[in-house]
Amino acid sequence: MSTILYPFTILNKNKESYINTIEFAKEIGAKVVCFTAVIDEEKLDDAYLHLLDLQGYYQTNFNNWKSTEMKVLSELKIGILVNQLSEFIKTEQVDFIIADANSMVLNESFIYQLVKESDNQPTILNL
Q: 10 Å Cβ neighbour count for 123?
């Protein structure tokens, strides 16, 4: 089963890219790992709420609250997003990484810089 890494920040409006990622995952039969890092433990709740909002939006507007067999996992870390994401890419098998063209941090060129020296060379997609 392929793995799609969906890095996100809780500050960006990313419902469209989340929907596109979930639909792509359903299409190819992949699991999705939603990944972010927050500065401290107090912000973890914000990250969970952000993911809950994304999933609720998807279920309400696109899936009609039907269950799916697709796995959507979350990896929420404490620390600096760049460092945590870099470490995750180095240690976990990832087939695709979703870039966010609207983000200064998670755009395609930034993601490329993170993966270019990694043994793992996932495909970077703008969805």
A: 11
- At position 11, the amino acid (one-letter code) is L
Tell me the fold of 3-126: Rossmann fold (3.40.50)
**Among the listed residues 79, 43, 25, 44, the one whose alpha carbon sits nearest the alpha carbon of residue 6:** 25
pLDDT of 117 over the 80 cut: no
> What's the one-letter identity of residue 117?
E
pTM of the shown model: 0.92
pLDDT over threshold 90, residue 58: yes
Q: CA nearest 127: which of 32, 29, 37, 47?
A: 32
Counting Cα atoms < 13 Å in the Cβ hemisphere of 80 gives 4
Domain boundaries, the chain: 3-126
